[in-house]
Write a structure and sequence with these properties.
globular; 6-stranded mixed β-sheet; ornithine cyclodeaminase, domain 1; 8-stranded parallel β-sheet
Length: 314
């Protein structure tokens, strides 16, 4: 077992986005997972436990407390840790601060999907949202898509977009905050949305042919970021069928309205990685729904632990 808790401050400098994306790609060459969630506690102060097992990778349990009132106390809203268990012996291999696992797996999940669905020569990335996840997405995309020249950040509150843009001065692409989302989308190659929207903020009429749309934010049956028109125009893939199609409004709502049918969802990351080739159409739109899941926590926790183990031996 690695000593102590592997914290963000200690471990994040050892990680890189290209390796994180590759860890998820390799993880999807393994068998599909067994996983389950447990939610306890009252509204506003809950404990979410997520667990997964993958043959030859082992087990993970990630437990996060989610306490809304902590924001007013100057404390993190989400706090927790992931425990990684050895595949062979069942021994605890590492305890990892959960935000390290969550931030890296969320952005790497989206970028892995984009590596199959977006054009490799994409030059303009639009980020919708200005939170922590949005920053991770900007860094991950720029690390993997080397042709990116411009990153535009839009948020409902422009000062938040400006603050995030200012914090990304170390990436190679030119970063700017924008106020006119439809106009910005007219030149986008990749759009990545990471918001808490319950009503669509991305309209099909705004997205040009050849664009890849990465939907990250929605995670409940009531949430969505893309309208029916966009979903109806797109070739849709998800990260994992079991954690998205019947659980997230991004898919449930347009299926219920008749805008799409279940068969319009062409596959998930297991399918894309197994096929080993991109599904790109310069005249069409691709959509990737990032739904998360404990299996991704397991893949990322293993990458983090292995990275720390290698560094400790040098």
């Amino acid at each position: 077992m690695l000593p102590g808790i592997l914290t963000w401050d200690a471990v994040q400098p050892l990680l890189n986005w290209c390796d994180a994306v590759e860890a998820l790609r390799r993880g999807h060459l393994r068998p599909r997972p067994e996983q389950g969630d447990l939610l306890l506690g009252p509204e506003g102060a809950r404990l979410l436990n997520r667990a997964a097992w993958i043959a030859d990778l082992g087990f993970v349990i990630k437990g996060d407390s989610v306490v809304a009132a902590n924001a007013a106390r100057g404390l993190p809203t989400v706090q927790g840790a992931a425990m990684l268990y050895d595949a062979r012996t069942g021994a605890i291999r590492a305890i990892i601060e959960s935000r390290l696992v969550t931030q890296y797996k969320t952005a790497a999940d989206s970028v892995l999907g984009a590596s199959y669905l977006a054009r490799a020569d994409s030059r303009h990335l639009v980020i919708v949202g200005a939170g922590v996840v949005a920053g991770s997405l900007a860094r991950a995309y720029c690390a993997v898509f080397s042709a990116l020249e411009r990153v535009s950040i839009w948020a409902r509150r422009t000062p938040q977009a400006q603050t995030l843009a200012a914090s990304l001065g170390d990436i190679a692409a030119r970063v700017e905050a924008v106020e006119d989302l439809p106009r910005t989308l007219a030149t986008a190659d990749i759009v990545s949305a990471a918001t808490f929207a319950r009503e669509p903020i991305l309209r099909g009429a705004w997205v040009r042919p050849g664009t890849h749309v990465d939907l990250v934010g929605a995670y409940t049956p009531e949430m969505r970021e893309a309208d029916d028109a966009l979903m109806a125009r797109a070739a849709i893939h998800v990260d994992f069928r079991d954690t998205t199609i019947d659980r997230i409004g991004e898919l449930m709502i347009p299926i219920a309205s008749g805008a799409i049918v279940r068969e319009d969802i062409r596959g998930d990351l297991y399918d894309l990685v197994a096929e080993g080739r991109g599904v790109r159409d310069v005249d069409g739109i691709t959509v990737f729904k990032n739904g998360g899941g404990a299996h991704l926590d397991l893949m990322m926790a293993r990458y983090i632990a292995r990275t720390v183990e290698r560094k400790s031996r040098t």
